[in-house]
Amino acid sequence: MDGLTLLGTWIAALLTLCILSFLYKDNPFYKFAEYLFVGVSAGFWIAYNYHNLLLPNLIDPLKGAFVVLLLEGRLDFRWLTIIAGLLGVTMLFRFFPKAAWVSRYGIAFSVGLGAGLMFIVYLQANCIYQIWGTVKLSPVVITEGPGGQHFDWPTSVSNTLLIVGVVSALVYFYFSKEHKGVLGSTARLGIWFLMVSFGAAFGYTVMARISLLIGRMEFLIDGWLRPAVIAPIQGALASLGLL
Amino acid sequence: MKFVRWLADIDRRIIFLVIAVAVVIPLLLPLGMRVKVTPQTESIYEEVENLPPGSNVLVAFDYDPAAAPEVHPMALAFLRHCFTKKHKVIIMALWPQGAQMAVSALAEVGKEYDLEYGRDYVNLGYKPGGDIVIKSLGASLGEVFPKDMAGEPTAGLAILAKVRNLKDIDLVMDLSAGDPGIPAWVRVANALYQRKVAGGCTAVSAPQFFPYLQTGQLVGLLGGLKGAAEYESVLAYAGKASRRMDAQSIAHLVIIVFIIFANISYFILRRQREEKREGPRTGPAASP
Amino acid sequence: MRREIPMIVAFVAGVTIILEFFVPALRDVASQIQKWYLVVIAFAILVGAFNLLRINYMKIRYRRADWPYSFALIAGLFAMAIIGIGWGIKEGTVFDWLFNYLIFPMSSTVFALLAFFVASAAYRAFRARTVDATLLLVAAVVVMLGQVPIGSAWVPAWWPDSLVFLTPDWLKDRIMNIFNTAGQRAILIGASLGVVSTSLRILLGIERSYLGEE
Amino acid sequence: MKSVPLGVFIIMALAAPAFGQMLQAAEGVTARDTPLDAGSSITLTWQPSPDEAGRKVQVLAYEVWRATRAAGEYERLGEVESGKENYEFTDEEAENGVEYFYKVRARGERMSTDAAPAGPVKATAEWFHPDRLNMLVASVVLAAFVLYFISQARAGKELFIRRIAGLEAVQEAVGRATEMGKPVLYVPGIADIDDIQTIAAVTILGRVATMIAEYDAALLVPCSRSLVMSTAQEVVKEAYLEAGRPDAYRRENVRYLTDDQFGYVAGVDGIMLREKPAANFYLGTFYAESLILAETGHSVGAIQIAGTAMPSQLPFFIAACDYTLIGEELFAASAYLSREPRLLGSLVGQDLGKVIILISIIVGVVTAFLAQFGFELFGRSIALEQLFVVK
């Protein structure tokens, strides 16, 4: 382990312990790690956005357009990027409370863009696609097999449950009628389906979450304690022994 | 009763402590819990076991660090098995970072055996092209890999004098995290050259390869961390995968035991309340 | 006017994106507009960073609770931003080193806290108080057992195939494939209707609280 | 007489290696306007030269050349490596409306052979994507439902909306915070403002903030995106103004932490531990942080109301929070809390959409069922596929 890696490993291990200490209770070590984490990660995203958003989407196109203007004397479409710059600059007006309303242009543009984008994305991927996944199903499935047709009961049962589940859970979301009578009991069934699905998803995720902890613990044991703590001490002891 | 009350509203830090212990103990002291070995793991083991010593095994490292937590333990276990059986191991990669993963696997396993590079094993490195690379291996290994991972010419290596092309390989093991991977090896090495192909992959992608097992195009399949733990289990040693799987099992059990305790204490307290004719419990419910 | 023109901007941006899905000819226009958004974000982060710095500066200046920690925050922010912008963010840079040994360990440790919280949340929530809570509890326990080898370890080798549905392994797959799919599907379909109506309200200016005062 | 050509043939065959063999051209070269695009693009397709299969002569690559006249000057655009069964090349730099001719040149080691030029062909932009007609119909129908009920509501028609428990609890939570003299914490998710869930969260924040201003409780809004912070500041300011308490608005209480997912979580957890809010709201887009926030919030004794349309995170909110708005309920919240008829109207419109969806599911399932017994309703599989699959 070279010096820089050794230093890094120690820092990483100490910060890991600082964050874990939060589980016991709030303490100065966690506070330090928390403030540092918020600061460095905010700085990280500033630098990241500069390199990955600002340079390729504003500065580089404008530079290119400027070169074309100088060399060929013509305006190309990249000058449109100025609009992006202007929209971005409106955000900076937030520094001045009196003129903060100017930033509404940037905000309105972003909100409108998001609203339009999500309209399509949700309707296509979530609505129509999911309906298609359901309408294909038949509650009774008969398969051709050796010895003629036979009733495929496992598929039939699972299809039926799936259809009932989707329909009843959708009914639960019905807003404009009191959930009473048939509507009420269907919605009730829908909630039960939702609860089973939530319980299942919870249980399914436990493994991935435990894996994360295993990863951190393996780092502390195999990445830090053994090579960066025990090994150097052993080395030091051995060299003392030699002396 | 006091205990039941304490249990019903236990300090969550006790739960945290128990979880931490449940995860750390298996990592420090492998419990070697028996993992139920599935037939598809067993059959890979049998295949390696029944090859005469000195057979040629090709191991393809088609994964990257992202999939390493699941797939790397398989590589370690499989290499150990091959070296124990004195098979010759030829390593290559269809994934750019695969060759590096092989280097680290060999560094870890290699020191446990008396091995000579070029005679007992070789790391041929990475070659882009997927299917086409495998197809060319059918003609000549040396032509596809004129140089090995370290950039040394492969011409003089003893192992390649014996193994000229894919037809001299007795078993192919593909450790794969996606494409190119198991389907490519099945399509070309198995279908075209009738080689035996085994695979190891992440848990998420395992189900899609079950059809290959049924048709016999794959002799066996290691699926995810569990598959790796199974292989370690048949080899009777507790490696990384077993340790991780032990930790998972214990942690899951601990959580379930906690849930059972919570319910027992809840029911005892409820009965008591009913006896005292208290009103129903109000407060946070788990419903929406 | 301070609200009307921004509302028109929102309308034009949103409708262009929607139309682009149906009108291939608008593709370039739409992709241009989406790039503009990235520029807006890049500028906006300065506003956020300024806000963060100002609050922490005030904390230090007026010696509010925990003020000494604010030095760590301010120093960390400037260090990362200046090193990243000045010397690049590629592999092997100082920025990369700071990411690997500061941000990555803290990030993955915060993430790993979840291992503890799934346990404490399960302990509290999974009590058979109501039918709903019981369903939640049973499904979670069965799936958790089905996930790990130990869950099915009690199943002996002679277990008859006809009783396979009593093993956690088998049940887990069915619950995930049927109940989980059904529940998620209904949520997604319902949510998409909510999204459609929300975005219409936004684009048509019926919902305009996001624009602030008149 | 017959022997002459045969003799020539034999001589040619014998001589061929000496002269180098003829390389055969690529086959079936077609050039057409790239379909369903914004124009300025032409797609070429061709099949390999017969020599690729025969392997007598090696084809190294196929070059693509373009000209504005069939016999005119061709310029080289690029090349495609050999070894495929079908070839495609897209010329992305065609000018709309200009006629072009394309030549594909098979290049061997020592010689090259041109295929006959393909063309003329013009690049055009398309104005409608016919495969997406179903999406268009769905969008228009849903929009019409929503707008119709909004106009009905405007006209003064009474609209009934069922109780949503999580939203009934909002007032209770704010009241509790006021009584205890502790702040309300509002977390608008970790996505940026272009995510519709964030937009919904920010509009709900407006309603909640009005309530908080009226009760005179404190409100903390930590944001993980600058744009969300800016929007939230505008919304909260407006809410305080509406409640007649503009003086109580504190800009620094709507603050930015960091864009980083877990950095943000660490910061919000810190705020919870030190400010000890009496009520926590988590509304918007959440990922893994959902449970970290909700468990920390629970440990400080806050009443917690969550809402998201992320199916993967709902289980954790359900388990750890007191009330959870599930999916569509999140989008209904702002209308529900405002009680503004126009907004409520849009909920009724959504419901009509749901009825249509339920009917189409039932019709689809019935046809699928009948198809199992050999009854084919309107050529089932084809017709349905066209209805639901969006390309």
**Average pLDDT score of chain B:** 86
Shape of chain A: extended
Given as residue ranges, the uncertain stretches of chain B (5+ residues, pLDDT < 50) are 278-288
The helix-and-strand class of chain A reads mainly alpha
- In terms of quaternary structure, what is this? heterotetramer
Name of the level-1 CATH class of chain B: Alpha Beta
For this structure, what is the CATH homologous superfamily of chain B?
Answer: NAD(P)-binding Rossmann-like Domain
- Based on CA atoms alone, the radius of gyration of chain B comes out at 25 Å
Helix/strand order of chain B: HHHEHEHEHHHEHEHEHH
Task: Describe the protein's architecture and organization.
- The complex is a heterotetramer of chains A (243), B (288), C (214) and D (391).
- Chain B has 288 residues and is α/β, with parallel strands linked by helices.
- In chain B, 50% of the residues lie in helices and 12% in strands.
- Chain B contains twelve helices and six strands.
- In chain B, helix 4 (68-84) links the parallel strand 1 and strand 2.
- In chain B, helix 1 crosses helix 12 (240-275).
- Chain B is elongated, with a radius of gyration of 25 Å.
- In chain D, the strands form three sheets. Chain D has a six-stranded parallel beta sheet, with helices on both faces. In chain D, strands 3, 4, 6, 7 and 8 form a five-stranded antiparallel beta sheet that branches.
- In chain D, helix 7 (261-275) runs parallel beside helix 8 and helix 10 (328-338) runs antiparallel to helix 11.
- Chain D is of the alpha/beta class.
- Chain D starts with a helix and ends with a helix.
- Chain D has two domains: 20-121, Immunoglobulin-like (Sandwich), CATH 2.60.40; 159-339, Rossmann fold.
- Chain D has helices spanning 3-19, 50-54, 133-154, 165-180, 196-215, 226-242, 261-275, 289-299, 314-320, 328-338, 341-372, 380-388, and strands at residues 27-33, 42-47, 59-67, 75-81, 87-91, 100-108, 112-114, 118-121, 184-187, 219-223, 254-256, 279-283, 303-308, 323-326.
- In chain D, strand 10 (219-223), helix 6 and strand 11 (254-256) form a beta-alpha-beta unit.
- Chains in contact: A-B, A-C, A-D, B-C, B-D, C-D.
- At the A-C interface, helix 1, helix 2, helix 3, helix 4 and helix 5 of A face helix 1, helix 2, helix 3, helix 4 and helix 5 of C.
Task: Provide a brief overview of the structure.
Chain C is mainly alpha-helical and 214 residues long.
Task: Set out the fold topology.
The complex is a heterotetramer of chains A (243), B (288), C (214) and D (391).
Chain A: H1 3-20, H2 28-72, H3 81-92, H4 104-135, E1 142-145, E2 148-151, H5 153-172, H6 181-242
Antiparallel strand pairs in A: 1-2
Chain C: H1 4-22, H2 27-61, H3 67-87, H4 94-125, H5 131-147, H6 168-203
Chain D: H1 3-19, E1 27-33, E2 42-47, H2 50-54, E3 59-67, E4 75-81, E5 87-91, E6 100-108, E7 112-114, E8 118-121, H3 133-154, H4 165-180, E9 184-187, H5 196-215, E10 219-223, H6 226-242, E11 254-256, H7 261-275, E12 279-283, H8 289-299, E13 303-308, H9 314-320, E14 323-326, H10 328-338, H11 341-372, H12 380-388
Parallel strand pairs in D: 9-10, 9-12, 10-11, 12-13, 13-14
Antiparallel strand pairs in D: 1-2, 2-5, 3-4, 3-6, 6-7, 6-8
Helix pairs in contact in D: 3-11, 4-5, 5-6, 5-10, 7-8, 10-11
